């Protein structure tokens, strides 16, 4: 459902993405890891059509990101790192706005809101303005907008950032529940999250993929925790 081929992107003299290629199928949850500045968010912004690559391309659900960006956007849900939203809107107003954008009207809209509001546990803040929300609740609202149209593909950048331990557990459970029916990429710095939800992991550094494997295989190969695996790989394999 996601196919990435030789993506490259520079910002001036900085090489942010350097020939990245990978595939993700339905039923997989891919953990996309790397140090700060490794190129993770740039790859995700390219896949979601917010940023054009200098070369290479990708397809989402069969749609090329360069040739059919509208169809790509319709096929996926994206939770960005900073959860962009309109502070003056209420949560309900914002989600209804997202429904307008996603062309969910009438019965379909009601069904979408009835499903997503309890799913993301935002009933108690539904009538509050977004500017009054804690970081955790803003994250949940961001997750709600990504899921509201029930997309086949999800790209989630730090989905549990700012959540308390109980909320993290709930979101991880939600990702596991959706995993069998969707294709999901999760970018995170939390290695326990990778073990909890990811069936596969890619480690990227300086724009290049260093490792593409499963959490269990990497732990067995290196005979240590994922935290130690991550440190070993990112310190020893960067050219």
What does this structure look like?
The chain is of the alpha/beta class. The chain has helices at residues 40-47, 69-75, 91-101, 106-119, 135-147, 165-179, 191-197, 215-222, 226-236, and strands at 2-11, 14-24, 29-33, 55-60, 63-64, 76-79, 153-157, 183-187, 200-205, 208-213. The chain has a 6-stranded mixed β-sheet with strand order 6-7-8-3-9-10, with helices on both faces. Strands 2-1-4-5 form a 4-stranded antiparallel β-sheet, with helices on one face. The longest helix has 15 residues, at 165-179. The mean pLDDT is 93.
CATH architecture of the domain at 2-83 and 152-236: 3-Layer(aba) Sandwich
Helix/sheet category:
alpha/beta
Which bin fits the share of residues in helices?
25-40%
Strand residues, percent? 25-35%
Spans of at least 5 consecutive residues with low confidence: none
CATH class of the domain at 2-83 and 152-236: Alpha Beta
Pattern of helices and strands: EEEHEEHEHHHEHEHEEHH
CATH superfamily of the domain at 2-83 and 152-236: P-loop containing nucleotide triphosphate hydrolases
Total strands: 10
On the 0 to 100 scale, the average pLDDT is: 93
What order do the helices and strands come in, and which of them pair?
Layout: E1 2-11, E2 14-24, E3 29-33, H1 40-47, E4 55-60, E5 63-64, H2 69-75, E6 76-79, H3 91-101, H4 106-119, H5 135-147, E7 153-157, H6 165-179, E8 183-187, H7 191-197, E9 200-205, E10 208-213, H8 215-222, H9 226-236
Parallel strand pairs: 3-8, 3-9, 6-7, 7-8
Antiparallel strand pairs: 1-2, 1-4, 4-5, 9-10
């Amino acid at each position: 459902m996601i196919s990435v081929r030789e993506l490259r992107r520079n910002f001036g003299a900085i090489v942010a993405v350097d020939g990245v290629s990978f595939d993700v199928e339905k039923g997989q949850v891919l953990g996309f890891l790397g140090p700060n500045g490794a190129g993770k968010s740039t790859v995700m912004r390219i896949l979601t059509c917010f940023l054009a690559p200098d070369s290479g391309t990708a397809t989402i659900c069969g749609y090329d990101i360069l040739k059919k960006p509208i169809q790509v956007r319709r096929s996926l849900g994206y939770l960005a790192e900073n959860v962009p939203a309109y502070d003056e809107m209420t949560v309900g107003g914002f989600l209804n706005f997202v429904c307008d954008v996603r062309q969910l009207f009438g019965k379909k809209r009601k069904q979408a809101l009835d499903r997503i509001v309890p799913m993301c546990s935002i009933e108690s803040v539904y009538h509050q303005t977004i500017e009054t929300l804690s970081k955790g609740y803003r994250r949940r609202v961001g997750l709600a907008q990504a899921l509201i149209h029930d997309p086949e593909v999800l790209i989630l950048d730090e989905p549990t950032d700012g959540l308390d331990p109980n909320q993290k557990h709930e979101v991880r459970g939600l990702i596991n529940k959706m995993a069998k029916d969707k294709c999901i990429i999760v970018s995170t710095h939390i290695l326990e999250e990778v073990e909890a939800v990811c069936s596969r992991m890619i480690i990227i550094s300086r724009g290049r993929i260093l490792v593409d494997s499963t959490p269990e295989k990497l732990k067995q190969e290196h005979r240590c925790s994922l935290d130690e695996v991550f440190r070993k790989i990112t310190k020893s394999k960067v050219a």
